[in-house]
């Protein structure tokens, strides 16, 4: 039986990095989500090794068992900056709208 190796570690790191940098819905999850996902993933690994007797390598490679712990759904679809207080998020939204308008004006001037 081949144990946990560098290739598996790099695979897991790449997978987790992709899950953290490309969240679904385009919104950035709160930091607590990442802490909870990490804890749940490590717990899953340790429980699977303890209960099933499989190698850590095979459990890590079976991403279907743990990548769902990194999934996040934005509870507030209108607030794409979920970590911020409502008044700050509103200000961010206003700045985004100004930037969008500025981009439209620049595009019109180029025509």
Textual characterization of the structure:
The protein is mostly helical and 111 residues long. It has two domains: 1-74, no CATH class; 76-111. Helix content is 62%, strand content 0%. The protein has four helices and no strands. The longest helix is centred in the C-terminal third of the chain and has 25 residues, at 86-110. The radius of gyration is 20 Å and the shape is elongated.
Record the SSE blueprint:
Elements: H1 6-21, H2 31-52, H3 56-61, H4 86-110
- Report the sheet-strand fraction: under 5%
The helix/strand order is: HHHH
Largest sheet: none
Shape: elongated
Helix count? 4
Helix content: 55-70%
How many strand segments?
Answer: 0
Based on secondary structure, the structural category is mainly alpha
Mean pLDDT: 84
Compute the CA-based radius of gyration. 20 Å
User: Uncertain segments of ≥5 residues (pLDDT<50)?
Assistant: none
- Give the termini distance in whole angstroms: 65 Å
Number of domains: 2
């Amino acid at each position: 039986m081949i144990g946990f190796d560098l290739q598996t570690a790099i695979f897991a790191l790449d997978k987790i990095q992709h899950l953290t940098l490309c969240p679904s819905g385009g919104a950035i999850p709160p930091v607590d989500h990442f802490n909870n996902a990490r804890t749940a993933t490590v717990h899953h690994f340790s429980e699977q090794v303890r209960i099933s007797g499989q190698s850590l390598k095979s459990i890590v490679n079976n991403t279907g068992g743990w990548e769902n712990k990194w999934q996040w759904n934005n509870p507030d679809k209108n607030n794409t900056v979920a970590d911020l207080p409502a008044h700050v998020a509103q200000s961010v939204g206003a700045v985004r709208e100004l930037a969008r308008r500025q981009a439209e004006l620049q595009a019109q001037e180029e025509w």
